[in-house]
Amino acid sequence: MPRKRPHRGHVRKHTAPRVFSVFLNIPYDQPFVELFLAYLAGVSAYGLVPRATLEIPGGGRRLDRIVSLIESCRYSIHDLSRVELDPAPPPTPRFNMPFELGLAIGREHMAKSHTWFVFETMPWRCQKSLSDLNGTDIYLHNGTPEGVFRELASAFVRKSRQPSVQEMRRIFEGLKKGLPEILHRAGSNTPFQARAFRDLCVYASALAEQVSGK
What we know:
The chain is an alpha/beta fold. It is built from 7 helices and 7 strands; from the N terminus they run βαβαβββαβαβααα. The protein has a single domain, classed as Rossmann fold, CATH 3.40.50. The strands form 2 sheets. The chain has a 5-stranded parallel sheet, sandwiched between helices. It has a two-stranded antiparallel sheet with strand order 4-5. A hairpin with a 5-residue loop joins strand 4 and strand 5. The chain is globular. The two termini are 18 Å apart.
């Protein structure tokens, strides 16, 4: 893993200004690991800082902490590709992700200072499962890292920093290569854990600086 050498433009996750922060509302399960790393790579390539409910500590009312986390972010990405029934008994749809999207939409309407994006795998499914979003642009990533990079490039087209899909891929490959060591250091077998998430974000930022040459 390359040395992480912050420079004057480096933004650490816990001190990142709101304008640089992106709330990631995504599934936390093993089949989603590659797309999780793709989101971290892509968001970091834009010089932005990923945030997630993985950071929320125990204690206190979880909903209040989620609301505060969304309010601390200028952007949010909501991946609704896992709204199908969870096969574990009893079969139940996942409502957390659409619910957190609703919180972000409420934030936009109240503060006019939050921009949210909806990502999906299948065309038209979101319009069927959540018809209130009809007329909203849905970013279809087709369940691949390349699709995530492509759709991030469409979502953040107005950002001054415009990394190429190839640059995002290089950061992604670096994260995949470094993941075993990061999990080992965190004492975890999954990246969906607070320490592992923090270390992945720091590493993604370092890789983004290395790739961009800044």
